[in-house]
Q: What sequence folds into this?
């Protein structure tokens, strides 16, 4: 039973446009969420996070939104750049573990 | 700081062979983790060690064993490899804790080991 879901396996956007990556979760006890970025042949790297008392967290071109009532979070990248092309994983903290989604492959076209 | 290192980077095994994947971190983290990544499956936790001297099963522990050798090192062993264990394996470490009442757990990952079992 997948507790963290990323329903879009892939997304393609034009350079300069906004990329929106979505993530849904089922466990209302999750209180901290993270986004990781992964390039091919490398390990995932931390991108941005949000706690459940916030509905938005911004870091440069990256903004994460959290809608607790819908159990939904999204990552916005504005403007998108070709170097953003990677797999993005959302994750939720469960005690001392992370529960990961299945990932979304973002392709930013020049 | 090297962060999290893993050896080997690539490995090909025959069914039934055994091997150990090595992981070390230099960030003085208490917690360490082993994941596998398969297409369409995301990152699935195999085993973790919340602190030196403890290990616990994750989501997919069957066919694996782990050893937390010391605070720095956490190894993953396949006793009798099977084709279903063909995957990319990632080790991670973190300093898990409560921050302002929230379960903060930013994990740092190694570069991965690509394992093929024939």
A:
């Amino acid at each position: 039973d997948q507790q963290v879901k990323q329903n879009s396996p892939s997304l393609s956007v034009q350079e300069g446009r906004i990329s929106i990556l979505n993530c849904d979760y089922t466990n209302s006890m999750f209180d901290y969420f993270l986004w990781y970025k992964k390039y091919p042949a490398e390990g995932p790297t931390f991108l941005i996070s949000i706690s459940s008392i916030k509905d938005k967290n911004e870091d440069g071109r990256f903004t994460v939104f959290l809608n607790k009532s819908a159990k939904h979070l999204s990552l916005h990248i504005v403007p998108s750049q070709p170097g953003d092309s990677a797999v993005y994983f959302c994750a939720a903290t469960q005690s001392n573990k992370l529960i990961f989604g299945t990932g979304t492959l973002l392709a930013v076209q020049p | 700081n090297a962060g999290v290192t893993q050896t080997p980077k690539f490995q090909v095994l025959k069914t039934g062979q055994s091997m150990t994947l090595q992981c070390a971190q230099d960030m003085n983290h208490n917690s360490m983790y082993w994941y596998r990544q398969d297409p369409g499956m995301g990152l699935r936790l195999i085993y973790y060690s919340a602190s030196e001297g403890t290990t616990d099963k994750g989501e997919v522990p069957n066919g694996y064993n782990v050893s937390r050798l010391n605070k720095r090192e956490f190894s993953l062993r396949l006793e009798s490899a099977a084709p279903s264990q063909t995957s990319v394996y990632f080790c991670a470490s973190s300093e898990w804790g409560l921050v302002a009442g929230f379960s903060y757990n930013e994990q740092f990952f190694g570069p991965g080991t690509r394992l093929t079992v024939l």
Observations:
- The interface with chain A takes residues 4, 31, 33, 35, 40-45, 48, 50, 58, 90, 92, 96, 100-112 of chain B (CB under 8 Å).
- The mean pLDDT of chain B is 94.
- Residues 66 and 76 of chain B are 5 Å apart (CA to CA).
